[in-house]
Design a protein that fits this description.
About 30% of the residues lie in helices and about 15% in strands. By secondary structure, it is α+β, with helices and mostly antiparallel strands. The protein has one domain: 3-Layer(aba) Sandwich (Beta-lactamase). Strands 1-7-8-9-3-4-2 form a seven-stranded antiparallel sheet, with helices on both faces. A hairpin with a 2-residue loop joins strand 8 and strand 9. The longest helix is centred in the C-terminal third of the chain and has 19 residues. It is globular. The relative contact order is 0.24.
Amino acid sequence: MVGPRAPAAVAAAVLVPVLMGGCVVHRHAAPHRVDRPGAADVRTGPLPTPTPPVPLTPLVPLFPAAGGRWTGHPPPGPGAPGDELTRSLDRALAGYGGRLTAAVRDLSTGRDYRYHDDLQLPTGSTSKVNILMALLLSTPWRGLDARARRDADRMIRLSDNEAADRLYERIGLEAGLAEANRRFGLERTYAPPGRCVDLYCWGITRSTAEDQLRLLGALATERSPLGKEDREQVLRLMGEVIPEQRWGISAGACEGDRVVLKNGWLRRVSSGRWVVVSAGLIRGGGRDYAVAVLSEDNRRMAEGVTRVEDTAKRIMSALRGGGECAGERGAPRLEGEKEKKAAKSP
């Protein structure tokens, strides 16, 4: 999202089949289209009819970890996977500079991994999911008027900034977001005060990878403050985005996996550097995962996307025990693609 609110870059939401529909992961997304430097205002087609999502295991409490560390059950044991993964990420990211934080949780077992989870970074358009979830806390989907539904649709699927501005006003700006986040269990997510003026808006909300997992968890559990229908609507919208925005944590999914995600990005006027973020849910191989990667100070947006995707791949591979995706399952399907395309397997 964001930059001076004029032509922008790409950003925002994608997925492979979500927890509610079937979609496929495209390993190589279409070229990123820039509509406003740093924001996202794009177009897409009609929404598919989602299939009912499979209930996910409730999120268990998250535990902070400096550097990188596995937590959860069963205990990871000394040394091994967590240390090795952290060293691998340190080496892979060393040449880029900038800062990056990431987290993944196996929702089926509660095991998770944190990489520099002390960092609190901008969310860009990823915060649009947070805005919609806050809105639905006060007004369930079936109670929204036509304009609000249209804005929600455009905000998530198209990453429309003006639609996000209107809904942000509707929830009460940063105060409304803060109250909603308290109910979602977020502890270190803060939006700037006041109404939207260029970059100074929801797009520079700062958050941690841990808080992003908590927010994703509220979409994946019956214990969520949101009702079932409202969770389904958010996941449905996250599952239908334009091809240019199907990058991010989806790179960590195997063929046949179901994925929903929302990406964000913005270019800082002062430095010209990019914030690139991706967060979402991956389901595959009988497991459910919540994944979030936030980065800043990328020299180019494409560089940020590469960092985010490489991080997602490495973390997901480690969480699966180092197993590779190739040949493990059938071909992935992008949410919204026709079933005949989705059914094709390599």
